[in-house]
Design brief:
By secondary structure, this protein is mostly beta strands. The chain has two helices and 48 strands. Strands 1, 3, 4, 6, 11, 14, 15 and 17 form an eight-stranded antiparallel sheet that branches. The chain has an eight-stranded antiparallel sheet with strand order 38-39-40-41-48-45-44-43, with no helix packed on it. Strands 18, 19, 20, 21, 23, 24 and 26 form a seven-stranded antiparallel sheet that branches. A hairpin with a 4-residue loop joins strand 31 and strand 32. The two termini are 52 Å apart.
Length: 615
């Protein structure tokens, strides 16, 4: 194959998000007394209110006054059209709020934790429109439920990302296009994609749609806390393009680039397209054109092609090299551009037939929409990849796979799916949780589609990471460090067996993982808690202590740990809860270790220990 143009991947420009400072309420328009700035908030999954802590950085709706006062809705000074918006939010039990894009289109914030099926009133939903003329019981319409429930337990922080495209209007004010929710991602789960919103949703400030209006948070229904509010307001594209000239050559690309072959065809066209090439291999396309920059700024140029390409702007080669879509990442570079006309050229060569011809070239000004140099159908849409899903609807499923954890591939892992909708990935080498999740079980597409080369499986629901450490540790004292991993001499995996347990959801079997740890025989079994609020982990151990040191249980580890109720702790910036069960003689120890917080419990005289993970 053609290798003379070596691959060159240049720096990629990212979106420049602006964070709204929450040192005071100056970012908001006439906020009511319901709204305050706090240093933090905390709650519990069964508590109907949040408790604030004095400081800065968190926006808090206290709901001090009566409910349903429209003056308590919080309008931002920020007016927006197209926008990419992200924030963290926390709700107490039973609370209700919402993010109103342009004060007109609501993304619902609601305590719908533990709901197995979703409606357009649940967390993350695009709330319904409302028309009383439709008759009683039919007033609400055109709402969009989230694809699945992805909200965490009350008192935990959630993260949401929203990509919104505003409606457009002509000079007379006539609407040309409807508003569109390009995507909503809640706690890492895509819950909406490409949803057209035909009109304002219920509770909007006005039924009149506009090109720009303030962002608004509902503040009259229930408490809500917000932080890390960031946005990228997208301007309308301003780059214009001239027609292009092209030269099409058939033959060996090396000979063509050495100018040994005359063009097969030449001509002019509105935009470049690979469809000029009638051959599937052994051809070269050359394009030359101009584009006009109206506003000096930073611009990102990117290209995607099957074959080899070279992208040149004003004589400067921005990207060149071998590319196979979709396996390779787009070739992109950021460049400061001056006002005026600029020249560009692109050379596209292909000497193989096992992938179709495909070419796309793009430009994007910071804070603006992506624009294409190439004609729409020049870049082929990616082939649809079928979902290969493993379900755990009626019985517990155990699926071996590789698992990605902290950007590393765990090769000796197993995924356990329980009919309750609670699931986990487990490191068989270390006897530790990798991740826990709620909802659908497992996406095994990368294991079974085509060659299945990565051999990885992915959770399909709301996921939290654990610490991947064996929970039992012989330590000389309560201040000694716990090893990040244990050797095979210290910890020997002895397989697992399925054992029957009864709980709220019925009689099911669950895996009991067995280990030998420094003379101890250990059984490690996890089952769903009542009402599926979380997972109960139960460890039994017996045998001779060959280490001649006290035994401790590591019950939690995270960037921070805070006790929110008796023996209940919120872990890792309130990402999940751990419920522990100390005894009179074995008290919980909270300590610092290698820049993290840990919950440790001595196990003097005990032969078993359990704790609960709630999320």
């Amino acid at each position: 194959m053609l290798k003379k143009l070596l691959f060159l991947l240049l720096p990629v420009a990212g979106f420049a998000q602006t964070e709204i400072t929450l040192n005071d309420l100056s970012a908001f328009n006439n906020p009511s007394a319901n709204w305050t700035i706090e240093g933090d908030v905390s709650g519990n999954f069964n508590a109907t209110s949040l408790t604030p802590k004095v400081g800065k950085g968190v926006l808090f709706c206290t709901l001090k006054g009566a409910k349903y006062q429209r003056s308590d809705d919080l309008k931002f000074n920020l007016e927006h059209g197209d926008i990419k918006l992200s924030m963290d939010f926390m709700l107490p039990k039973g609370s209700n709020s919402g993010i109103y894009l342009q004060s007109r289109y609501e993304i619902q914030l609601f305590d719908s934790w533990l709901k197995a099926s979703t409606t357009d009133s649940d967390c993350g939903a695009i709330y319904h429109r409302w028309d009383e003329a439709r008759g009683k019981g039919n007033e609400g319409y055109e709402g969009h439920a989230p694809r699945q429930s992805a909200v965490k337990a009350p008192g935990l922080w959630n993260h949401i990302d929203i990509d919104f495209k505003a409606p457009t209007f002509d000079a007379s004010g006539r609407k040309l296009t409807n508003a569109r929710i390009n995507s909503v991602v809640l706690n890492g789960i895509l819950i909406h994609q490409n949803v057209e919103v035909l009109g304002v949703t219920r509770g909007a400030v006005s039924t009149q749609e506009v090109a720009k209006a303030p962002l608004m948070i509902q503040g009259d229904h229930g408490q809500v806390a917000l932080k890390n509010i960031r946005h990228e307001v997208l301007e309308k594209p301003t780059v214009t393009f001239s027609s292009v000239t092209y030269e099409y050559y058939e033959g060996k690309p090396d000979d063509i680039l050495a100018q040994k072959i005359a063009p097969t065809a030449t001509g002019n066209m509105a935009k470049p397209t690979q469809k000029i090439a009638t051959a599937k291999q052994d051809f070269v396309l050359k394009f030359q054109g101009k584009f006009n920059i109206v506003e000096a700024d930073n611009y990102t140029f990117s290209g995607i092609w099957n074959g080899v390409g070279s992208f040149i702007i004003d004589g400067d080669t921005l990207a060149k090299g071998w590319f196979i879509a979709p396996e390779s990442k787009p070739k992109s570079v950021s460049k400061k551009m001056s006002v005026g006309e600029h020249n560009y050229s692109f050379v596209y060569a292909k000497d193989f037939s096992w992938r179709p011809n495909s070419l796309g070239l793009f430009i994007q000004k910071d804070h603006s929409e992506l624009q294409s140099f190439t004609e729409r159908t020049s870049l082929l849409d990616p082939d649809p990849v079928p979902l290969v899903e493993v379900k755990a609807n009626t019985e517990t499923q155990c699926q071996r796979s590789f698992v990605m954890y902290n950007n590393k591939k765990k090769t000796h892992a197993i995924n356990v799916g329980m009919p309750s909708g609670l699931n986990f990935s487990y490191d068989l080498n270390q006897g530790g949780f990798l991740q826990l999740w709620r909802g659908k079980f497992l996406n095994t597409t990368e294991m079974w589609h085509e060659r299945g080369e990565p051999q990885t499986a992915e959770p399909m629901g709301l996921t939290v990471n654990s610490n991947d450490k064996f929970p039992l540790n012989f330590l000389p004292n309560a201040t000694a460090e716990i090893m990040d991993s244990l050797s095979k001499n210290d910890l020997k995996y002895k397989g697992y067996k399925m054992e029957k347990r009864s709980n709220f959801s019925g009689n099911f079997v669950y895996p009991n993982f067995m280990y030998e740890y420094k003379g101890l025989k250990v059984n490690d079994m996890s089952t769903p808690l009542d009402e599926a609020v979380g997972i109960s982990r139960y460890l039994r151990f017996e045998g001779e202590n060959t280490a001649n040191m006290p035994l401790y249980a590591l019950l939690a580890e995270g960037s921070d740990i805070a006790e929110v109720a008796t023996n209940r702790y919120a872990v890792d910036n309130k990402s999940y809860y751990v419920q522990v069960f100390p005894t009179e003689t074995n008290k919980i120890i909270m300590r610092d270790s290698k820049g993290k917080k840990q919950l440790l419990m001595p196990l003097n005289g005990l032969k078993e220990v359990s704790y609960h993970l709630i999320f």
